[in-house]
Design a protein that fits this description.
11 helices; alpha/beta; 2 domains; 8 strands; binds 3-methyl-2-oxobutanoic acid; TIM Barrel
């Protein structure tokens, strides 16, 4: 009898596809550093995204536009070192794939070589078709991202729900079919009507991962700091909070401040 534990096997793009085929939901979360990624992985996450939401969460920028490829690579290196089981993918940041397929491939290759991650995510459909094709041809798994695409915030002007109108919904469907046919291993759908997201998931063969896209898709993704309650100022309808780390951290840190100020810390047992 084998002692090999199927559950502990490394998640791959192929196993995510199998999960979709078997009707098993896919759990995904962002991480940007070694410590958090180790915990997230040990808790049983299937896919960890080093999202360019690091621009907001880790660097305090208003949008994801300013983050650089070097910064994404630094975050991803830490995450990859902390993960044993989950599939780790990295966002190609704004400005590092839109200009040409050559630029896109060079950026994706840097991510793969320098971080050890297993794929990249890119925002957009037919507009970036050639860049996606070039990266896929090099053997690098690509996850698409449609619907609300935060890198285009300066074009759209708001973070409101996307694809509510027929024309935009049709374009999203066409783009999802295109990404699937080209060979993307998954597609993230962000902030679109649940019925449209469910339709996409039923029509494409690759797994569809939703964020604010309802329950009819193949998996869900959230930003770790949002679902852990570290970011109290952000409360979209789709966000379920699984913790209140802002309170936990503030209480613990102010307790420490008090203990230092009152000379309670360190005590005799806490010194050499
Ligand atoms: O950057 C990010 O965190 C993302 C997720 C919200 C899907 O793209």
């Amino acid at each position: 009898m084998s002692t090999y534990n199927e559950e502990k096997r490394k998640v791959t793009t192929a196993s995510l596809r199998k999960m979709k085929m078997n009707g098993q939901k896919i759990a995904c979360l962002t991480s940007y550093d070694y410590s958090m990624a180790s915990l997230v992985d040990a808790a049983g996450m299937d896919l960890i995204l080093v999202g360019d939401s690091a621009a907001n969460v880790m660097m305090g920028y208003e949008t994801t536009v300013p983050i650089t490829l070097d910064e994404m690579i630094t975050y991803a290196k830490g995450v990859v070192r902390g993960v044993k089981r989950a599939l780790v993918i990295v966002d190609l940041p704004f400005g590092y794939y839109q200009a040409s397929p050559d630029m896109a491939l060079a950026s994706a290759v840097r991510i793969m070589k320098e971080t050890g991650a297993e794929g990249v995510k890119m925002e957009g459909g037919s507009e970036i078709r050639e860049s996606i094709e070039r990266i896929l041809t090099a053997g690098i798994p690509v996850c698409g991202h449609l619907g609300l695409t935060p890198q285009s915030i300066n074009k759209f002007g708001t973070y409101n729900v996307r694809a509510k109108e027929e024309a935009e919904a049709q374009k999203l469907l066409d783009d999802a079919r295109l990404l699937d046919e080209m060979g993307c291993f998954a597609i993230v759908l962000e902030k679109i009507p649940a019925a449209l997201a469910a339709r996409v998931a039923s029509e494409v063969s690759c797994p569809v991962i939703g964020i604010g896209a309802g329950g009819g898709v193949d998996g869900q993704i959230l930003v770790a700091q949002d679902m852990l309650g570290m970011n109290q100022g952000f409360s979209p309808r789709f966000l379920r909070r699984y913790g209140d780390l802002a309170t936990v951290i503030t209480d613990a840190v102010s307790h420490y401040v008090d203990d230092v100020k009152t000379s309670d810390f360190p005590n005799e047992k806490e010194q050499y």
